[in-house]
Every structure is written in structure tokens, then in C-alpha cells.
Amino acid sequence: MTAQKTAGQAGPEATARYLIRGASPLGKARTDLLVQDGRIVEIGSGLSAASATVIDADGLIALPGMVDPHTHLREPGREDAETVETGSRAAALGGYTAVHAMANSSPVADTAGVVEQVFSLGRDAGWVDVRPVGAVTVGLAGKQLAELGAMADSRARVRIFSDDGICVSDPVLMRRALEYVKAFDGVIAQHAQEPRLTEGAQMNEGKVSAVLGLAGWPAVAEESIIARDVLLAQHVDSRLHICHVSTAGSVELIRWAKARGIKVTAEVTPHHLWLTEELVRSYDPVYKVNPPLRAEEDVAALRAALADGTIDVIGTDHAPHPSEAKDCEWAQAAMGMTGLETALSVVQHTMIESGLMDWEGFARVTSAAPARIGRLAGHGRPLAVGEPANLVLVDPAARWQVDLRTMATKGRNSPFSGRVLPGAVVATFYRGHPTVLDGKLNTPSRQSGPRGTEGER
Amino acid sequence: MRHLLSTQDLSLANTIRILDTAEEMAAVGEREVKKLPALRGRTVVNLFFEDSTRTRISFEAAAKRLSADVINFSAKGSSVSKGESLKDTAQTLEAMSADAVVIRHWASGAPAQLATSGWIDAAVINAGDGTHEHPTQALLDAFTMRRHLARLNGTDSTGSNLSGLRVAIAGDVLHSRVARSNVWLLQTLGAEVTLVAPPTLLPVGVEHWPCAVSYDLDSVLESGVDAIMVLRVQAERMNASFFPSTREYSRRWGLDDARLARLDTLGMKDTIIMHPGPMNRGLEISSAAADSSRSTVLAQVRNGVSVRMAVLYLLLSGDLRDPVARLQSPSISVDNLPNTRADETGVNAR
Description:
The structure holds two protein chains of two kinds.
Chain A: E1 17-25, E2 31-36, E3 39-44, E4 53-56, E5 61-64, E6 66-71, H1 84-93, E7 96-101, H2 112-125, E8 129-132, H3 148-153, E9 160-161, H4 171-180, E10 187-190, E11 203-204, H5 207-212, E12 216-217, H6 219-236, E13 240-242, H7 248-259, E14 264-268, H8 296-308, E15 313-314, H9 343-352, H10 359-373, E16 391-401, E17 420-430, E18 433-437, E19 440-441
Helix pairs in contact in A: 1-2, 4-6, 6-7, 7-8
Chain B: H1 12-29, E1 43-48, H2 53-65, E2 69-74, H3 86-95, E3 100-105, H4 110-116, E4 123-129, H5 135-153, E5 166-170, H6 177-188, E6 192-196, E7 212-214, H7 217-222, E8 227-230, H8 246-253, H9 257-265, E9 272-274, H10 287-291, H11 297-317, H12 323-328, H13 341-344
Parallel strand pairs in B: 1-2, 1-3, 3-4, 5-6, 5-8, 6-7, 8-9
Protein name (chain A): Dihydroorotase
Binding site for substrate (chain A): 72-74, 104, 290, 321
Domain Dihydroorotase catalytic (chain A): 61-248
């Protein structure tokens, strides 16, 4: 990554006053930003550097800190795959200041106790805000609602609920969940996968699966659930979020639902914006993911949908696995890819360098919209005086090769390994503190005092 | 070409070379001493993660006729069934200096992973992987068809292809590695393939394959076929709503006595009936059809040994490296197969 951009000598002992000199907010006119005590206190040209650590941001773009609505941090339970510490380090390096940790830990995050544990681990780590996602059903079993209200009222202030990894396939249970979370302005994030249509599914069903002899995961299994759920959301007037949309047909359904005023939001992963099922021909399990990599026309539809707002947000679905889970037969391999440290670059490549989106749009889909869906105060805010200093400095001209050995995540399952990607995170400010400087981890934010109310509006 | 993983990546030149070499190997099988010293001192491992006595003994006979040392490694009763990974198993075989690994695996793609993972340096031969491919089966089928065609034409099969041969492949195409390997190989050899199956047992995407597709066996027979390949219906498909009942399957897609008789009334006296085995008599094929003079089932088994000898020999001798050049080169003579000094002194030439 670029190492020459930072002139300041910010270390753990540095002052909590930072002058970011000459950055381009959202890729627009250059200006200085003064950060102090966790906030942006001044914006303008030629700001005084008095008693401030100066960060030379010439040529860098300033963006609001990225918010991931969909991360797997694996802790508690699978600390061999990832911990809150390693996952949130990866998040900071990737330009994130907040991540939502999915509920499929062990034990499942289906009680106030577990979500508070994850929340506390995130706070102790201090690299990003770790916002737990609560399970919709007890043990992700799809039988009985978890205590959604208790999780919402806990110190973790859960607002997104999901059985991610497993679809809430029972229509009655889904209806009840959608209705119930209205009591505390929650949202159900659905993993849209009709279970019977995808038993044993290994990859997208189509011309490649036919040749490879791998059991197909048909697009209709995603689309039929989305069709059902947008109608349910309309019927009970609830908020619905669709995780990792992967097909052109899903895009059409969501576009239709939004046109009807249904309160649905949708997410796409960086890998679904770029990679296709053709990669599966290698039988390399690093390309095994759920939902599966789809066809070229799906990729094109997803990019267009993100650009026109049909898809609201980028969610990494960062899913680290230990190497043995991928060093095996395709059918036995775990599903999932890492994504936190490559998301920005992949979105720059697929959306910005393709001309589909500008940096303002980037900020919308990686920060403002996900923060709004998660009702996450203090994130996704404009870069303006008085706002919390959660921001990223990006060098859009940088080119770097993905090297698994240098990643902060424990997962070595990046499908982008070896690729040269554009754009690099030079600095990440989390609550006014640089967690990343010079493209490298700096120090975590160690803040004192109670911090249990971040989720309140 | 170091490995045989799929017929899709097999060139016409290499295909003809394998089939021609198999002809020469078949001649060895007719001699009193059915053994060649070609692979003396080389080790061939039969690595079977799935039961298949027929394929295993065929490869075993092939390797032994070439004087290779054969190790049979079966998932049953070994550490594989105790959760040892493919990687660990492969590395164990590598440590034992296997020259070739013949792998049968329930997972599609396992042979490809073995060949490309860097876990092992041996030549990898796919002996059937999941619902992907079974290339030596397709090669032995092609060998059988080529001999049949040569006999009809009164020509020598060596060097020839299957141009114009009309082949119907009937049955569970969706789950059949035999069908996949045959579609690619027969296309390479110039045959005209029609898949005949219930729509539920054809993969989504089959429309991209280089063959015709039909749901109607009778109309396919009436349009004229030179070879009918009947695929086995696996027991586990029978209760998964792929078709309503075995009787209905037999009536619509089985090669039953009525359809066997139809071949005669249609005047197709030279049409052969093939089956990769093992057969479900009375389900996809009637006993009369299986045992008729048209049936090549036993010839297929016999030819399997010759074809596998050819594959083992060519891969381990490196003779499939340059398909274009090899096409021009004179075919090997059985009497002059490599019999190196290293072999004679028992030193492993590897």
C-alpha cells in the first residue's frame, strides 16, 4: 500500500488533534479537515496546524467511515477462524469504522447475553464499532422467535436481526418476525434461500454446473423467497433487508417492490459484483460461497442495480474459514470468502473505474445507507463540522497485489488472492482516532466511560 | 498431458492415440502370456473413495499386465473413513513415491484437485468423480463402438474416428458421469449423440451441450441409431420425485423387450446395445436386451482393460505430451515397448 502519504508522527502518545491537509471529500474540491476530540471541528483551506498532528492527504479522497452490514467475526465459538480482535483489525484496515457481526456464532447470538458479549469484545478491541446482529430464531433453528426485544434493549442495542446462513423459510415465522421488530424499529435481514430447492447445492445451477456435475443452486431459490418476503413486508408494513442479492431476477423483484413503496433494502457483496461461476471450473473451493457466484449477466444486473439505488448497500459477507475447511474436496469445503480488506478496492474496480458510480455514490452504499438500515448513530454521517470523526482517507491511484500472508484477518480464503487491485486505504479515523495510518494498523481507540448507547437515535 | 481428468480436454489426436494404443494392448490380452514389462518398477495406486469393484479390478488388471506394482487403497477400512482428508491421503501416497494415482471419488472435481493442488506429483487418472466424469469409461465405450464400426465396414479400426455414428444415450443423464464423458468424447470423435431422458433427469444447461436432447425414446429409435447406451438408474433417485415409479420409468425410457423387438422391425440389424454396468435388469434394460446378440456389455468390460492399459502406459511414458507431433509419429509396436536397462536391473527409473 502507499506508504508515502503520511507526514505526521502520530503514535499512541500523539495529541488527539489531527489536521488532514488537502483531502478531497467524496472526490470533490480539496480542503483541510481538523479533527479533535472525536469530531470534525473545522473544514476549510489553510487551517492552522497548531498543536495538531498533520496528515498530508494530497491526492487522497476523504470518505465517511465504511459500515459493513454483514460480517462474520466467528467469536464466540470459532476463534480458530476469526476473533473479534482480528476481524475488527481487518475491518479498520479495509476502511471500516463499524461492522455488524452476524449471529451464527457458537453459542448463537440469540440472547441478550451473547450479543452483549460480542459488543463488549468489540469495544475492548477498539478498532471499529462492533454491532451484533441478533438471531431471528432460537439457535437459528427456524422454529421459535429468539428474544428479539431483550437483544434490542441490551447494551448492544441490536436493530438488525438475521438467521444469516439459514433462510427464515417458514412464512408464518417470517411474518411474525417482520411484525414484531417494529416495536423497536428493527429490521429482519433475510438470507433468501429456499431450503428444499437448494438441498446439497454446490454452485449456481446453469451451464457450468451441468458440465462440472455439481449440484445446482438455482436462482429461483433466492428469487422465490424475495418475492414472498417483499409481499409479507408490504402486508404488515415492516422493514425488510435482503442479504447478499446475487441474481438478475432478484434485482427485478426488488425494483418492483421499491416502486410499490415496500420498505425493502438490499445488499450486494463485492465478490458478486465481480466474480462469476466460470471460476468454479477450477474446482478450487476458495470460490465456493453462498449464495454462489453467478453468471456474467447477473454481475451486470447487480452493478446496474447498485448504481441506480435498487440495491442500497455493500455488505462484505466476510466469512473467514480455517485452511482445512477449504483444503479439501469442493463438496466438503465450507462456503464463504473473506472480504473486509478488499471491499473498497473491489467496489472501486467494479463500480467507480467502470464509470457506474462516483465517490459520493460509494459513500452512500458503503456508509450512509448501511448505517441507516442498522439505525447506527454516529456513522454514515456527512463530512461536516460537528459530525463524529469516522472517516477514511483513500488513495485511489494506488495499486496493490492481494497477498494472503499480509492480511489481518485469520481467514486465508480470499478469492482475490494474487490479483492487483486499485485503491488503498491510507488512514482510518474511528471516533477521531487513527486506527490506520500510512496503510498500516496504528492503535485502537481506547475510550473511557460508558459507551453503551451508540445505537440510540 | 500429465493427467487424465476429463474427456472435455482430450484432443482428437490424443483420443485416437489412446484408442490405437488400446488396440495394441488388446492384442497382448490375446496372447498366452498376457504381460508386458512396460511399467516394471513403477507404482500405480488405486485410490478408491467409493466402492467400485468393477472399475478397480479393471485398473488393477491393466496395471499388472504392464508389470507395474499395484497398491489398492480403499476408503473402507482405512484412515479415510476416519476423517483423513484427501490432502493427507495424497501426501501419504506421495511419500510412498506413487507414479500414478487412479482415483475414484464421490465428490465431483476431486481428481482435478488432486492433480492441481500440489499435494502430489503423480499422474492422476480419473476413475469416476461424483456426477462429473468417468473418462476411461467413455474411452472404452468409444473403443467398443469403433471396433463395431470397423467390423461393419470391413476396415481396420486403428486410426479411425466415429464420424457419422448415431449414438443414443438413454437414462439418468443428470447424475451420470458416464454420460458427460461420452458426450464430450463422442463429439470429439465425430459421432452424433442424442440424449434421451425424463426432463427431470437432464441438467439445466444441457442445451449448451454438443448433442441433441429428446424425451421420447421411441421416436429416437425410429429416427435410426447405431448404438444405444443405456444408463443405470441409481436406487436413490427412485424416491426423490425424479419419476413417479420404476414401472413408469421402464415403460417410457427403459430398453424393454418391445423396444428390442422394434429394432428388428425397423431393420436396424447392426445396432448395438451398450451399458456401463452394473445393470438393473427389468428397470432400464430388460434381460432379453442385456443378453441379446446386440449387447456389447461383456465386450465393454474386456475392452476396459485394454483402454486402461493404454492410458497408464501413455501417461507414465509421457507419450501424450505433444498431441500434434504424436499424431504423425508411427504407432508404438507392442514388441518394442520400452524395456529399459533400469527396468531390467530392477532400479526404479523414476
